[in-house]
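Q: Predict the bound structure with S-adenosyl-L-homocysteine.
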Amino acid sequence: MLTADITIYELEYWLRETDSEKLKELWTAADETRKKHVGDEVHLRGLIEISNHCARTCAYCGIRAPNSEVIRYRMSKEEIMECVAEAVKLGYGTVVMQSGEDYGVKQEWLSDIIRAIKQETELAVTLSMGERPREDIAAWREAGADRYLIRFETSDPLLYDRIHPGGANSKWRNRFEILNLLRSLGYETGGGVMIGIPGQSYAMLARDIDMFRKLDLDMIGVGPYIAHPETPLGSGEIASDIDPRDQVPGTEELTCKVVALTRIVRPDSNIPSTTALATVSKETGRINGLMRGANVVMPNLTPEKYRILYDVYPEKACLNETSDACKGCLQNQIDAIGRDIGSGQGGRKR
Ligand code: SAH
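A: Predicted complex:
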């Protein structure tokens, strides 16, 4: 039954389904649910990757602290405000500032930038700065930030701990505590997972989707895990420890199934068709995400000289495109499927 009360067993059944005729039922149900609850608008969120410094050691991520191959950068306020002006010019309703967990990004420095954006523009401000202390997250809300994204990566505590070496401050529980904190501070709150992590089973992924339902997240981002050779997970140093028949693949199809089922369990959430999905399938990923439940896209506004250094995973889609070209390309794709570009901030409509 493809309704919001679908059981965990049925979720797993759909995740394992490979018959393309049967899958059409899932795609149609997700697309109808999307249309009914969030309409035909596709909201564009301009992504600014403000720093690639990172204090953490996440085993999958290319900008993890121990990766000495990365040339590190941190954007200046002036550079960030230029990207913000570009977002306004291109008609985007939101900017998303993302970075590694960078304690060189000081609380007051970012508060000042948030205040400037809120004073000078109508944009919604979304942050994705990692597991920062409560005081920082509270100060940024006070300064005017509207939304915060932090994925919990997997709902399975053991898998989480395997891919987050680093002891007590890298625990699974922390992510959920931050999600609760964000909500209590009045942020629109976003979480999500990667798909195809070595050691991730279909049953775990079904529980991830159930977790989205329980947490009632405002935004839910999912994308395929993409191996980065300069990481312990990508190099095979940490390997899958489950039966290969249970291991989920990080494919376009499986990601679309998760997007579709997520739409079905959380009909009114904002769900992006992610860059990671567009990366594993450069031709159809973006569009299939949008036709199978997603209603958001996050075009990249980071200056080109930095973009290539924000190397969380390799061969990212649209890496060399200017912001203008990116907007044009998205406009064409959105037109082609009979949808509209969203206007305004595009917050969650309940
Ligand atoms: N430091 C912040 C934001 C940057 S990472 C944070 O941790 O929240 C943003 C997201 O990129 C992560 O949550 C993770 O889901 C994703 N990511 C990192 N490495 C990846 C990889 N190798 N493949 C796919 N997605 C990855």
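A: Residues 8-337 form a domain with the TIM Barrel fold (CATH 3.20.20.70).
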